[in-house]
Amino acid sequence: MNSFVELIHITILIITIIASFLAVMFKKLLPAVIAASVVSLLLSLEFYLLHAPDVAIAEAAIGAGLTMAIFIFAIRGTR
């Protein structure tokens, strides 16, 4: 079971690195914001797996939800 948990950790971290790379490489702003939100959601999942549920809830609510909404409103306001 321990190796299964380690495999989940490694998989989440690899997907996080890929999503963060995509957030930097996208030319359009909206896909970059969505990729950054995916990074934040994956980090909140990682925090939860590391037995820090309070940090995971804060990261999911503020990092993924609120920040993405503010960025999308800012992008829509600049067109």
TrEMBL record:
<keyword id="KW-0812">Transmembrane</keyword>
<dbReference type="InterPro" id="IPR025383">
    <property type="entry name" value="MrpA_C/MbhD"/>
</dbReference>
<protein>
    <recommendedName>
        <fullName>MrpA C-terminal/MbhD domain-containing protein</fullName>
    </recommendedName>
</protein>
<feature type="domain" description="MrpA C-terminal/MbhD">
    <location>
        <begin position="15"/>
        <end position="78"/>
    </location>
</feature>
<feature type="transmembrane region" description="Helical">
    <location>
        <begin position="32"/>
        <end position="50"/>
    </location>
</feature>
<feature type="transmembrane region" description="Helical">
    <location>
        <begin position="6"/>
        <end position="25"/>
    </location>
</feature>
<dbReference type="GO" id="GO:0005886">
    <property type="term" value="C:plasma membrane"/>
</dbReference>
<keyword id="KW-0472">Membrane</keyword>
<dbReference type="Pfam" id="PF13244">
    <property type="entry name" value="MbhD"/>
</dbReference>
<keyword id="KW-1003">Cell membrane</keyword>
<feature type="transmembrane region" description="Helical">
    <location>
        <begin position="56"/>
        <end position="75"/>
    </location>
</feature>
<keyword id="KW-1133">Transmembrane helix</keyword>
